[in-house]
């Protein structure tokens, strides 16, 4: 997927049974509060990712950093999952969630590299015209990351579980931001 100064980033399909224990440690960690699974038991995580794996419009991937699990990415079709009735989807819209695994030794720039790699993987599909996200309105750290890769906030929406900031990133916006960043231009 991506090779950078921080190492190689790639994705593999998530296996709900073999990855549940790893995911449980990630999604229940205090740094993953916005994932909203803080009190989940191992079986809850396994069940949630089995549900996603069985869904025809939602899938999940384990992100690897130099071959080791380091992040989670979910891809969904917003016409059928997460945003049904909350906005008017356009052809080529793809929804996305990502979570970087908690670590005691954070690497400067790693999360930005992860979201860039995630966006590259989504836009590698020529049918993807726009990526849609709906992070919690209070998650200012992810809003800054989203903006850095080309997301434009549209409006706040009320989801059943949170007040969210609906944001879109077109292929052109992503390529423009990615091109500027790769040339060392501060964005």
TrEMBL record:
Keywords: Acyltransferase, Transferase. Residues 12-59 form the Acyltransferase MbtK/IucB-like conserved domain. One of its GO terms (molecular function) is acyltransferase activity. InterPro entries: Acyl_CoA_acyltransferase, Acyltransferase_MbtK/IucB-like. Pfam families: Acetyltransf_8. Pathway: Siderophore biosynthesis; mycobactin biosynthesis. Acyltransferase required for the direct transfer of medium- to long-chain fatty acyl moieties from a carrier protein (MbtL) on to the epsilon-amino group of lysine residue in the mycobactin core. This is Lysine N-acyltransferase MbtK. The lineage of its organism: Bacteria, Bacillati, Actinomycetota, Actinomycetes, Kitasatosporales.
């Amino acid at each position: 997927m991506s090779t950078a100064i921080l190492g190689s980033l790639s994705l593999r399909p998530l296996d709900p049974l073999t990855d549940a224990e790893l995911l449980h440690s990630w999604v229940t960690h205090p740094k993953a509060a916005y994932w909203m699974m803080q009190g989940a038991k191992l079986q809850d995580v396994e069940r949630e990712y089995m549900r996603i794996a069985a869904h025809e419009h939602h899938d999940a991937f384990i992100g690897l950093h130099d071959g080791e699990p380091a992040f989670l990415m979910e891809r969904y079709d917003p016409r059928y999952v997460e945003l049904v009735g909350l906005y008017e989807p356009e052809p080529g819209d793809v929804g996305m969630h990502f979570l970087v695994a908690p670590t005691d030794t954070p690497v400067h720039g790693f999360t930005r590299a992860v979201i860039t790699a995630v966006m590259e993987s989504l836009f590698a599909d020529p049918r993807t015209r726009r990526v849609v996200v709906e992070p919690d309105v209070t998650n200012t750290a992810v809003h800054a990351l989203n903006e850095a890769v080309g997301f434009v906030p549209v409006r706040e929406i009320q989801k059943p579980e949170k007040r969210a900031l609906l944001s879109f990133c077109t292929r052109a916006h992503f390529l423009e931001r990615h091109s500027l960043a790769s040339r060392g231009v501060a964005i």
